[in-house]
Amino acid sequence: MNKLEIEKLHFAYDKATPVIKGIDLVLDDRKTAIIGQNGSGKTTFVKLLKGLLRPDSGRILLDGTDLKTLTVAQIAKKIGLVFQNPDDQIFKNTVLDEVMVGPLNIGQSLDEARASSRAALAQVELVEVEKVNPYDLNLAQRKMVALASILAMDTPIVIFDEPTMGQDVAGKAIIRKVIENLQAEGKAVLCILHDMDFAAAVFERVVVFSQGQLLLEGEAREVFSKKDTLQQAYLDQPQAMKIAQALGIPGNLLSVEEVMTAIKEDEVKLP
């Protein structure tokens, strides 16, 4: 089912300064992007979903089970989190050993962990560096190693924190394919993003955080069409949508491909 129900969620690191303020939200198997400015509560929110933090009040239900009744180890078998900074996860001396840590920790045998880790490295196109020290790789590659370590755990829910940061076009294409493959396998994918273009092109649903509260949520095309509301959260529309609006193309287009199709079909005349 892969369903997370968040009810009246509150959290503060310092009781005088709340970070999460009464979030009510249901997350299902639709690919979902969580967007918002720095300090809006996004990363704290996903750490609560992962069980790395515990709510001050409210609850999080995973397929009907309250997370407070589960240990972090039990949650790890259900929810995988790829941190924004891969160096927060990496500590082994070879890429393969690093990717195997998660699978071994959730009970896979040595052979199973090795096989699942190599399959995960194939997905992120890093098979050839399995014997390399992760810190001999560049930041974009280390992010892929961290991503592979979570893929190898085969959790039904996968959360990415800023996966496209530092990635070039080829890297973003790999991440997009990974996300699409996860959904095809019936897994739920959540992603914290500052990249509005990637969010618009890849995700079905968008959730907007602002100052620890849920400002807006819905289908990507609908959310990104609400320019004035997005500006309240200091967010911009995707470039393709802004170009389409400037050209007078109707329909709140989300991608360059959609814009080009509209032009080719003579729905708009270029100036």
TrEMBL record:
Protein localization: Cell membrane
Q: Which residues cross the membrane?
A: none
**GO terms for MF:** ATP binding; ATP hydrolysis activity; ATPase-coupled transmembrane transporter activity
Q: Does the keyword Protein biosynthesis apply?
A: no
Sorted UniProt keywords: ATP-binding, Cell membrane, Membrane, Nucleotide-binding, Translocase, Transport
- Extract the InterPro entries matched here: AAA+_ATPase (IPR003593), ABC_transporter-like_ATP-bd (IPR003439), ABC_transpr_CbiO/EcfA_su (IPR015856), ECF_ABC_transporter_ATP-bd (IPR050095), P-loop_NTPase (IPR027417)
Cellular component per GO, a single term: ATP-binding cassette (ABC) transporter complex
Q: In this protein, which residues make up the domain named ABC transporter? A: 4-236
**Principal location listed in the UniProt entry:** membrane
| Membrane protein topology class | Peripheral membrane protein
Q: Which family does it belong to?
A: Belongs to the ABC transporter superfamily.
Protein name per UniProt: Abc transporter
Species of provenance: Trichococcus pasteurii
